[in-house]
Amino acid sequence: MTPPLTLRPVNDGVCAVLDAQGLLLGNLKRIGSVWKFKALGYTASGALVPGGGPLTARHNAVFERLDVAQVSARLQAN
Question: Radius of gyration of the chain from Cα atoms?
Answer without folding.
Answer: 12
